Amino acid sequence: MSRVESELSDRRFDTLLERLDRIGDELAKVSKRLDNDEQFLRITRELATLNESLQALAYAALGQQAPNVRRRRTG
């Protein structure tokens, strides 16, 4: 292999390594974003459960009767 071919091969290798590093960085970003999304889903489920519990407590405080709510009519 000549010196010129060796230099081209080295440059290609360096370019390939740079591209792989960028791909690795992007994968790390995507992975972090997915982890955050999973955390938000857990929080959403917990909030829904908390909301159901609070509604059950509110009905219990009212003596098993649904609240009598009057809504304003719009229009």
The backbone outline, from C-alpha atoms, is rod-shaped
Indicate the percent of residues in helices: over 70%
Order of helices and strands: H
Q: What is the count of helical runs?
A: 1
In whole angstroms, the N-to-C terminal distance is 86 Å
Mean pLDDT: 84
Main β-sheet description: none
The total of beta strands comes to: 0
Unreliable runs: none
| Rg estimate, integer Å | 30 Å
Beta-strand percentage? under 5%
Indicate the structural class.
mainly alpha
Give a topology summary.
Blueprint: H1 3-61
Describe this entry's structure for a reader.
With 75 residues, the chain is mainly alpha-helical. The chain contains 1 helix and no strands. The protein has one helix spanning 3-61. The longest helix has 59 residues, at 3-61. It is rod-shaped, with a radius of gyration of 30 Å. The model has no long low-confidence stretch (mean pLDDT 84).
